[in-house]
Amino acid sequence: MVMLKNVQVCPTSSVTGLSEQLIAEIQRIDSNLLVSFTDLNVAIREDQFPLLRLPAKEALRRAIKARDTTLIVNSAYRTIAQQYLLYKQYKENRCGISLAAKSSNGIKKGGF
Q1: Hey, which of 11, 19, 56, 96 would disulfide with 79, CB 3.0 to 4.6 Å?
Q2: What's the confidence (pLDDT) of residue 2?
Q3: Nearest 5°: phi and psi at 10?
Q4: Where are the beta strands (DSSP E) in 11-100?
Q5: Which residues, in sequence order, are CB contacts of 95 under 8 Å at separation 6+?
């Protein structure tokens, strides 16, 4: 078993399988918690999770409409596994990560 704390590769795509499982579990618990925003006028990479809470999606819809232009999404929803990995890379001064938010203390304490 590979633990997140031992992952040494840079892209968060290295934890895509785990991230998909986490999202599926969130959706199983509450199918309305995260909604896709791919139906909006956005350009997003295939390796991103285009998910938001519904109020955020509606605010994004209004902002896009007001500007009447395609929104280029540089970063989207990250699972806790992805955020843990980014923060780890930042703290280790690796992968060109210049700043990253700390993930949940539960993961840090549990060693994931």
Answers
A1: 19
A2: 65
A3: -80, -50
A4: 35-36, 42-43, 51-52, 71-72
A5: 10, 89
Q: CA angle 15-39-68, nearest 5°? A: 115
Q: Enter the DSSP assignment of 6.
A: G
Return the bridge partners of 43, or none.
72
* Lowest mean pLDDT segment, chosen from 9-13, 54-58, 87-91: 9-13
pLDDT at 61 over 90: yes
Residue type, 59: A
Helix axes 80-91, 16-29, angle to 10 degrees: 140
Q: What is the DSSP letter of 14?
A: G
Q: Which two tokens stand for residue 90?
A: 């930042």
Distance between CA 27 and CA 7 in Å, rounded?
26
Query: 10 Å Cβ neighbour count for 3?
Result: 9
Q: Give yes or no for a contact between 19 and 82, defined as CB atoms under 8 angstroms apart.
A: yes
The encoded tokens of residue 21 equal: 């499982």
